Each structure stands twice: as structure tokens, then as C-alpha cells.
Amino acid sequence: MPDLVLVRHGQSTWNQENLFTGWVDVPLTDRGRAEARDAGLQLKSAPDLDLAVLHTSVLKRAVQTANLLLEELDREWLPVRRHWRLNERHYGALQGRNKAEMTEKYGADQVKRWRRSYADPPPALEASDPQNPANDDRYRDVPRNELPLTECLKDVVARMEPYWTDSIAPDLHEFGAVLVVAHGNSIRALRKLLEGISDDDIVGLEIPTGVPYLMRLEEDLTFTGDGQLLGDPEAIAAATEEVRRQAG
Q1: Which position among 9, 55, 90, 183 bears the catalytic label?
Q2: Do 213 and 228 touch, CB atoms closer than 8 A?
Q3: Structural domain count of the chain
Q4: Residue 157 to residues 154, 169, 190: CA-CA distances in angstroms?
Q5: 173 is catalytic
Q6: CA 208, CA 76: separation in Å to the nearest integer?
Q7: 114-147 residue pLDDT tens
Q8: Residue 9 is a catalytic residue
Q9: Range of the domain at 54
Q10: Which of 17, 71, 72, 88 is catalytic?
Q11: Mind listing the pLDDT tens digit for each residue in 52-92?
């Protein structure tokens, strides 16, 4: 039966500073690097798991997490696919802003809608903004009309679906076990697609940093219902609660 492992990158410098990060490319903290290594150790001890291919976003916090994780697994030789469709949700004009300060300025209800409503995106970047991804060389081959200036979770689901169909699913059929190292919202979008989570329920799903989520799939890649976070339950609960409090 195919295995799919989803890992949110370890803590980044902007996670630590409680800033909206989105597509801004920031590195891991020391804690984030430790989380990545721990994720590798958890996967190393998982029974009957034979990871054969890796998918990451094109953002360095995911790439660094994957590299450290594979080093712990002694599988740095795995073939790697990187794609912008696995990027974090684009937070538009909120990128670089402090989450607690935005809550104080706009009110908790509004910021909660921007962060977690399924179909309510934050204010968009201006096209002239230096943060426009069209100005970044890593997206030079992506049609401009596909590069977002803001996104809601519904938008992330829409961009993730073809990547699942065209890239991850074929690798699962061919290799049997696939590792995806990505971001809170791209993982949330993928889990919504595979687990059939409703629009209302998906916004409450917390994705802790550096904790592997192992999904057992049927041969046709439907979800068996067997999904588990790997690691110490108390540590996972604390990490999940920390994510929940970030809007503060």
C-alpha cells in the first residue's frame, strides 16, 4: 500500500518573530534545524517505511528541512522534485507584518478571516511591489497570470490539485512511498484533497512544524483513514498549540 509522508518545515526565523511569511524566502532557526533532524529520526524509526522520492517547495525553509531530514535518514540520494505549487500560501500585503500587531490594528475577527477563512484572501500586493513573485528568478518560467499577489486557502487547494494529479500521484504509483516537505497551508490543502475535509473544518486544522504526518493510502490512492503524527504526543500537542496561538 502506498505511503505518503507530509512534513511542514521546521521553525523559520519569521515563525520565531511571529511574522506573516508566505512566499518570502527566510531560513530556519536553530530550533527549526533541530526539528528537521528530529523529523528524520521519527521517520527512521517508522516501521515498513521505504521512502523513495522527495517533493519540496522552492522556498529555502522547506529545502533546508528536507536536506537535514534526509541526512538523518541517510537518504540524501533520493530523487528530488521542487515546485512552486508546494509553496506556502501567499499572504499578500500582510507578508512581513507581525501577526499580533495586525490583530491589534484590524481586530481579531478580521485577521482570523484573513488567516483561516477558506475563501477570504488578505489584501493583495500591488503589482509594482518588490515582493511580487514575478520579480524573482525562481518563477521566471511560470506564466505571470499564475503567480499570486494574494491567496486564500481555496486558491492554494486549486493550485495544489494539478500538482497532486500530475506529480505526486504518479510517483506514489511508481515508487510506493513519497515524502513531501512543504508548508502549513500547502499541506493543509493536500490533506483537504485527500481526506475530504470540509471547507469549514479545514480552517481549524493545525499543522505543527517539523512533525511528520504519515498517510496510508489504498492502491488507487484513496485515503484509508489511517493517518498519524509521528513523535512524542505531548511534544506534538505543545507544538500544535503554539501554532494555534500565533495570531495572539
Answers
A1: 9
A2: yes
A3: 1
A4: 5, 15, 7
A5: no
A6: 24
A7: 988 899 999 999 999 999 999 999 999 999 999 9
A8: yes
A9: 3-244
A10: 88
A11: 999 999 999 999 999 999 999 999 999 999 999 999 999 99
